[in-house]
Amino acid sequence: MATILTGPRKSGRSLLAQRVVAKTGGRLFDGAENHDEEAIFHAWNEAQEVRRPLILIADHPPPAWRARLPDLASRLAATPHVAIGEPDDVLFASLLGKLLGERGLLAPLELAPYLLPRVERSYVAIHNAVEALDKHLLSRRARLTVPAAKRALTEAGIIDAHRAAG
Question: Measured on CA atoms in the order 72, 76, 78, 80, is the torsion positive or negative?
Fold first, then answer.
């Protein structure tokens, strides 16, 4: 009845866990490795007793997350671990389109294929790229095109001029 959820920043791990907890009446510790160990220990035991899920979000699973309480350490070692990985090509393109759409920007079909080899493959980098695109386009009252994206992301230092041209 307990799970350790890890993944990169901005990967949606907190949102996912919040939705599971809301549907199940479970309990959530976000940034669990920084919470009071006794509170986690008691929550872990309670989850087993009342049969309601406990989700522990951490940057790293045990043993990298070292609990000082021996009883908690043994429970964490026995707790299933689910890891969210970095985005693949399909998720990169989908997330890019979603984040741009939330800002009212329509991504041309050729944008994701252009950005895939040029932007770091991480959730944070995708968020940073969308922020830079939005800021650039708003300040110039321009529409989103690949040339505009080249300029925006080069100016923001997200891609270098050499990679922008390729």
Answer: positive
